[in-house]
Amino acid sequence: MVVFLLTAGHGTRLRPLTNFLAKPTLPFLGAPIAIHALNPLRSLDVTEIVFNTHHLPDTVRNCITNESLRRAFKGCSLERSKIHLSSEYDQILGGGAIKKAESLLSAHENFWLVNGDVVYLPNPQTLGRAWQEHCRSGAMATLIVLKDERVGKQFGGVWCKGKGVMKFSKKSVPGTDGYHFTGFMILSREVLAHIPPEKEINLLYDTLQKQIDTATTSKGPFPVRAFVDDGYWFETGNWPDYLASQSRVISLLEGGPTNPHLKDLKELLTNWHRPYGYQLKAGPEGTLFSNAAASSASAAKTKFSGCSVLNFRPELELPKKMRDCMVDSLDWLHDNEVRARIPDVIEMAPGQTPIGATSSNHHLKTRELAGLKEITDAFVFVESAD
Fold first, then answer.
1. CB half-sphere exposure, 262, CA atoms < 13 A
2. 54 with 157, same domain?
3. Positive or negative CA dihedral for 26, 264, 127, 121?
4. Which of residues 202, 218, 234 is at a domain's end?
5. I need a surface site. Which of 86, 119, 137, 144 has the fewest CB within 10 A?
6. Residue closest to 51 by CA, chosen among 11, 98, 93
7. Which of 234, 251, 276 is at the close of a domain?
8. 3-state SS class at 23
9. How far, in Å, CA of 174 to CA of 133, rounded?
10. Could you tell me what percentage of the chain is helix, strand and coil, using 3-state DSSP and rounding each to the nearest 5?
C-alpha cells in the first residue's frame, strides 16, 4: 500500500511562523503535523510513502525521514516504509502532484492521498474498512468524510446521495447530505489519466467533479464515493485555531481515557516523547501539554493560561506568565543551516505581547526569557545546545 502525502503548500494563514517552517512540519503537541497526518494509517500495511515539496522544502525533507518514522511508528509497517520525494521546485501543482509522481504510483491499483497538514482522529476501524469497500466498488475515488454542522456555512462540503458523491460546493445542494472532507481519500490509478501534466489543479473540483457530472449524465455508477466516519478533525489553518485544536486534544486526552479514537494518538505521543513522557493539564485557566519540562523547577514557577505547549529540555528558565504560547526545540530538525534561520521568538500577534519591549525584530534570545514577566501569543524556538 502506498500513501501520497501532500506537503508542498505555503500555509499563508500561519505566517510569520510558516515563513520559517513549512506548515506540515509545525509541531502539534510536540510532533510535526505531517507525522500526525500519517498516524491514522498506522494499522494498515503501508509499504511506501511519497511526499512532495515546494515551500521551504528543506524543512519538509528534515521532517519526513526514516528516523522520524522509526521514532513515531515503532512496531507498525509505517516504521519500515520506503520514502520517495517528488519535488515541485518551479511550480506548486496542488492535486496535479500525483500526476508528476505517476511513475511512483501507477504500479499500484489504488493508493491513499492524504493532506499533510491535517490532524484527524478516525474511528480505529474506519480507514481499513474504507479501503476494502473502495477496492470492491471499482470507484475512481473514495473520500473519508465527517458530519459537521459548519458544512455549507463556514466551509465547503461534499454533498452526497447515499454513498455517492454528487457535488463539491461551498453552498448546500438540495436533496443531498453535506459532509466535511477530512483530507483522506483513496484513489484508483485510473484517475491519473484524467489529470494534465505539469499543471496546478484542484483534484476535487477540476477532476473528480467532471467524472461525477459525466456519470450523472450517462446514468452510470457513482465514480466518487464517500465513507462516513464518526471521528474528530481539527482545524490548524491559523494561529488561534492551531492553538485551540491543541487545547481541544489535550482536553480529550485528559477526559477520555477509554475513547477508542484516542488510542493511536496516545501511541504516537508515547513514542515521540520517549524517554521523558508527557503530561497534560486542563482547567479553567486553560490547557497545558509538556514533556520533560513539566517536571522542571522553572516550569513549576510559571503561571500558564490559554493554551501552552512545551517541548524542550527542562533546564530552560521560563517567564513568570505564559499565555497562548508554544516552546519547542524541534529536535527532529538536524540541519544546522535550517535551524540557524529560525528566530528564537516569533510573535504571532504583533503589538499584543510585551516581547517588543525587550527586543526588536523578533530577536529575543531564549536566555532572556527568564527576565520577562509575561509572554503572549508567541512561538519560542529553543536551541537544544544553547
1. 14
2. yes
3. negative
4. 234
5. 137
6. 98
7. 234
8. helix
9. 27
10. 35, 30, 40
Q: What is the CA radius of gyration of the chain?
A: 21
Question: What does the pLDDT profile of the chain (386 residues) look like in tens digits?
Answer: 999 999 999 999 999 999 999 999 999 999 999 999 999 999 999 999 999 999 999 999 999 999 999 999 999 999 999 999 998 877 777 888 999 999 999 999 999 999 999 999 999 999 999 999 999 999 999 999 999 988 988 888 999 999 999 999 999 899 999 999 999 999 999 999 999 988 888 999 999 999 999 987 666 678 999 999 999 999 999 999 999 999 999 999 987 667 889 999 999 999 999 887 888 888 888 888 888 554 555 567 788 899 989 888 656 778 888 899 998 989 999 999 999 999 888 888 765 544 443 444 445 666 667 777 888 899 988 876 43
pTM above 0.85, yes or no: yes
- Amino acid at the residue 147: K
Number of domains in the chain: 2
Is residue 210 one of the residues assigned to a domain?
Answer: yes
For residues 365 and 383, the answer to whether their CB atoms sit within 8 Å is: no
Is residue 367 a contact partner of residue 382, using CB atoms and an 8 Å limit? Answer: no
Query: What DSSP letter does each residue of 340-382 carry, written as one string?
Result: HTS-SEEESSTTSSTHHHH-STT---GGGGGG-SEEEEEEEE-
Q: How far is CA 72 from CA 85, 107, 329, in A?
A: 19, 27, 17
Residues 6+ apart with CB under 8 A from 340: none
For 51, the domain range is 2-234
Q: Which of 217, 4, 227 is nearest to 137 (CA)?
A: 227
Q: Are 317 and 369 in contact (CB under 8 A)?
A: yes
Say which amino acid occupies 264: D
- Does residue 386 lie in a domain region? no
151 falls within a domain: yes
Side-chain half-sphere exposure of 135, counting CA atoms within 13 A? 12
Grid coordinates representing 119 are 490532524
In CATH, what number is assigned to the domain containing residue 98?
3.90.550.10
Distance of CA 115 to the CA centre of its chain: 7
